[in-house]
Write a structure and sequence with these properties.
This protein is of the alpha+beta class and 112 residues long. The protein has a single domain, classed as Ribosomal Protein S5, domain 2, CATH 3.30.230.10. 38% of the residues lie in helices and 21% in strands. The chain has a four-stranded mixed beta sheet with strand order 1-2-4-3, with helices on both faces. β1 and β2 form a beta hairpin. α2 packs across α3. The protein is globular, with a radius of gyration of 13 Å. The relative contact order is 0.24.
């Protein structure tokens, strides 16, 4: 993932959290908002509710890999925040990818 396509600024996070739309899946919560750019910016978040640092890092790796496997299908021009839920670490990457794909498809965030 390119550095410019990563959501880093605290102000941008606040805008997405406060004005974005959210969708809950089995393994994650996705919050998204149009950003007015010609590319999408993504952030992966794991709270301490997920577990210790090993589990939090694994959950972020799972979400990052799931997005990478389908990244070319996601529409550009959105800020996306993927927030891991407790159940994500008990499952394989393919299950996480299917869940992510289903949520993004239901919110019409995928290119056809």
């Amino acid at each position: 993932m390119l550095k410019e396509s990563t959501l880093r600024n605290q102000q941008d996070f606040k805008v997405v959290y406060n004005k974005g739309q959210s969708k809950v899946s089995r393994f994650m919560v996705i919050i998204y908002k149009k950003n007015g750019l010609n590319y999408s910016r993504i952030a992966y978040v794991s709270s301490k509710k997920v577990g210790n640092s090993v589990k939090r890092n694994r959950s972020k790796r799972l979400m990052r890999e799931a997005y990478r496997l389908m990244g070319c299908e996601v529409k550009s021009g959105y800020d996306l925040i993927f927030i891991a839920r407790n159940s994500i670490n008990d499952h394989k990457c393919e299950e996480v990818r299917r869940s992510m794909y289903g949520v993004l498809r239901s919110e019409h965030l995928l290119d056809k």
